[in-house]
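This part of the workshop introduces the protein records we will be handling. A record pairs a protein's sequence with a compact description of its fold. As an example, a complete record with its sequence and its structure tokens follows.

_____
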Amino acid sequence: MNKNQSLPWDHPRFKSWIAVARACQLMQTVLTRELAPLDIKPPHLDILVNLYRFEGISQQELARKLLVGRSNISMTLPQMERRGLIERRGDARDKRVLRLFLTDEGRRVSEKAMAIQTTLIERILSATPIDECLAIAGNMERVVEALQSEIAENGE
């Protein structure tokens, strides 16, 4: 880089991106600590919340919603099944498809974990006016759309 070329960290968009990334990382750290009494981690919470919302979702649909590979899901689900949080059932119409359901214990843990997450978000963002929260959400949704387009264009 020459003297006349600005450095990445001097660029407002770069600063914005780094701030979002740091906030996400720190939130994951705090959320991990807060979820510890339930003996789950944020990836488990992501699965539980999706099963709570979309009962009977397939493993493939879950992986797509979570933006992870099916192998990541395939490694985590057996642990959660052994813990009695979820159960996998064959699809009545397509025997190759496994549908995912919360057990009663899974529903109980999901509700407690969602309350922990909601309380944490409220605590962290309570000083931020709602209109600013909505503006941040809108901006991040545009970033998500741009990134999804980028991925689609490259056939990933």
Q: What stands out?
A: The chain has two domains: 32-125, 128-156. The chain has a mean pLDDT of 91.
